[in-house]
Structure formats: structure tokens, C-alpha cells
Automatic annotation (TrEMBL):
PANTHER family for the chain: GLUTATHIONE SYNTHETASE (PTHR21621:SF4), RIBOSOMAL PROTEIN S6 MODIFICATION PROTEIN (PTHR21621)
Keyword Transcription appears in the UniProt entry: no
Name of the coding gene: gshB
Catalytic activity as recorded in UniProt: gamma-L-glutamyl-L-cysteine + glycine + ATP = glutathione + ADP + phosphate + H(+)
Database matches in Pfam families: GSH-S_ATP, GSH-S_N
Any GO MF annotation of the entry: glutathione synthase activity
Needed co-factor(s): Mn(2+); Mg(2+)
Domain ATP-grasp: 136-327
Name of protein: Glutathione synthetase
Length: 348
């Protein structure tokens, strides 16, 4: 099996990324791995789709640091190959990273992922589902019971009124964004710097304001779902608690958050079960839920991270289980002669 990982930029890949762990797990199981970036697709006049894939000349690399170095070093080579020579296209880019400086690149994975799926390549997460999830408005399609009280607006008057209605204050952030960028906790509509915060965040488009959950001071729980269900092996869940740094409202690892073990309670499993139907319907193969109490703060469907941290905490590499699931899907596709849709196959 050949798996192509679609990422923003090979130069920005690191040893601690979940994509790296997935690639190494695939290599360990005897699969071929290549990387593809937004500028690597070629659609020829005869409608044949090709990719300029970064591959390795030889050798089975086992260590994350060595893998990333090889990906960017002399061991790497670029080959232009037909898309049909790829079994799985794994879309692992973060569109928000390209939205400002390379807007053409932000949705290349979705656009060409659709074409790849039409050519018979298993494409996960399903590109049509990802097209519906390009900003945090996607979250509003899930049951009210799992969502904090939320306002989406570009009006500072609306936001001031919303703050006054929330006893614990609010979290304000861009509707489009990731990694904890421009996330603020606001306790009162009378805060002196509210206008400056509003101007900073609204410059990126619409704002999303959520009622603050006091339990967030202890961090949130990142729980991976695969095929709509919690990813786990023998009772060890693909989950961690993301603990914010002192004085920091964000628990993102990019914002100096740290990883700790997480207890997966029946209440958390109930939250996961509540969002399962829509995730399955949308072909969301691998997803990260960010949970506080019995509420979900975000659903990361593009590039959820944390599997290497979970492996370090528990000594269980659940990246392997992800690759095994992809192997099973390829077998299903062959057994059914390509009659299963990409969206259905993505979550079977």
C-alpha cells in the first residue's frame, strides 16, 4: 500500500507531529510513504491526475528525527506519479496556516482530494466533508447539548451584549483559525482593552464568542475518534489532557500547553457518542475532540495532533491502529470492486 500524506509544507514538518508518527507506523508495517504539498498536483489535458510526490531513495527509517531529516535531505527525491499509483491520500494540512499568505493553497487538498477520490483513491478525511468544515461554523451543526453557549458575529455591540449575559465571561477567537492564535478570555464588557481585542480578532473575519467554562482552567481533553468512535486499544484511549501554562487561557501545545494523562469518563464517552452520527455521515475518518466537562470546545477534522504525546504517556502507539484501519479499508474497496463511495468507506 502506498500512502501519500498531504501537508502544508515539508519544510515545516517536525519529529513531534502526528503525521510523522503515522508515516513511521506505515513504514514499519511495510508500506510505501510519500509526501505531497499544495503545489504538487498536475491535471493534464487528458484529465489524468498526477502528483509530484516526495519519496525516499532507500532504507527503512525508524526514528522521528531521522525521518524528518531524510524527508528534507539528500535521501528524498521528487517523483511525478499517476494518482492511481496511490492507495490512500491522507489530508493532513491546516488550511488556516495558508489563508493569509497563500490563499490559493488553503483548499488545494479539498479540491484535488475530490479529484483523487473520483480516480479511485481512498481520500481521508473525505474532502466533501472537509469542505463543509472549513471554519468553526461547522461546529454549530452538532447537538446543542455538547456545545457551549455561542455567538458568531462581527458586531462589537452584539459581542458586548453577549458578554453581559455570561456570568463567567467569554472566550473570543476568530471563526477561522487554529493553534490558539488570537484567543482571548474576556470577563466583562467594560474591559478597557475590549476595543483593541475586537479590532485584532475581527481583522481575520467573523468572530466566535463562547461562554467560558470554569473547568477549562485545568485544561481540556483531546480525544481522538476514528471511524466515529473513540480510538483505543485494550482500554488505553487515544486521549490526553492539554494543561495550559500558568496565566494562559489556551491549552494548545503551540501556546506552551503541556500533555498529561486524561481520565476518560462515561460522560466523555457520551459526548463522543453524541457527535458520532454526523462525523460518520460526513466521512470524518480521524478527528480530535477538545472537551471540557460535558462540552466540546472544538472539533479538529483537518490535522488533529497529539498521538506521539499519547504514546509517550501510555507506552502505546495508537498510530499503528490508524494504519491498520486504512489497510482494512483498502481491502473493503477491493472486495466491493470500487462500488463503495469514498465518504462511506472513510468511516467504515
Amino acid at each position: 500500500m502506498r500512502i501519500a500524506f498531504f501537508v502544508n509544507s515539508i519544510a515545516e514538518e517536525t519529529a513531534i507531529y502526528t503525521t510523522t508518527a503515522l508515516a513511521l507506523a506505515a513504514i514499519a508495517r511495510g508500506h510505501d510513504v510519500c509526501y505531497v504539498t499544495p503545489g504538487d498536483f498536475v491535471l493534464r489535458p487528458d484529465d489524468s491526475l498526477l502528483v509530484r510526490a516526495t519519496t525516499f531513495k532507500s532504507g527503512k527509517i525508524k526514528k522521528p528525527d531521522s525521518f524528518v531529516a531524510a524527508l528534507r535531505g539528500e535521501q528524498a527525491e521528487i517523483q511525478t506519479i499517476p494518482i492511481k499509483d496511490i492507495d490512500v491520500l491522507f489530508l493532513r494540512n491546516d488550511p488556516s496556516q495558508d489563508a493569509d499568505e497563500r490563499p490559493w493553497a488553503a483548499h488545494a487538498g479539498i479540491i484535488f482530494g475530490r479529484l483523487a477520490a473520483e480516480h479511485g483513491v481512498l481520500t481521508v478525511n473525505d474532502p466533501d466533508g472537509l469542505a463543509r468544515a472549513q471554519n468553526k461554523l461547522y461546529f454549530q451543526g452538532f447537538p446543542d447539548a455538547v456545545r457551549p453557549t455561542t455567538l458568531i458575529s462581527k458586531s462589537i455591540e452584539e459581542i458586548r451584549s453577549f458578554i453581559d449575559e455570561q456570568e463567567q465571561g467569554i472566550i473570543l477567537k476568530p471563526l477561522q483559525g487554529s493553534g490558539g492564535k488570537n484567543v482571548f478570555k474576556i470577563a466583562s464588557s467594560k474591559e478597557s482593552n475590549l476595543n483593541q481585542i475586537f479590532e485584532a480578532v475581527s481583522g481575520e473575519g467573523y468572530l466566535i464568542a463562547q461562554g467560558y467554562l470554569p473547568d477549562a482552567t485545568a485544561g481540556d481533553i483531546r480525544l481522538f475518534l476514528m471511524n466515529g468512535r473513540p480510538l483505543q486499544r485494550d482500554g488505553t484511549y487515544a486521549a490526553l489532557r492539554r494543561v495550559p501554562a500558568d496565566g494562559e487561557v489556551r491549552s494548545n501545545m503551540h501556546a506552551a500547553g503541556t500533555a498529561a494523562t486524561a481520565e476518560i469518563t462515561p460522560e466523555i464517552l457520551a459526548v463522543a457518542e453524541m457527535v458520532r452520527p454526523k462525523l460518520v455521515e460526513d466521512g470524518m475518518f480521524l478527528v480530535g475532540l477538545d472537551i471540557v466537562g460535558d462540552k466540546i470546545l472544538e472539533i479538529n477534522v483537518f490535522t488533529p495532533g497529539g498521538l506521539p504525546d499519547i504514546a509517550a504517556l501510555h507506552g502505546v502507539d495508537l498510530s499503528v491502529d490508524v494504519i491498520v484501519s486504512l489497510e482494512q479499508k483498502i481491502n473493503m474497496r477491493e472486495n466491493y470492486g470500487g462500488k463503495l463511495s469514498n465518504r462511506a468507506l472513510a468511516t467504515l
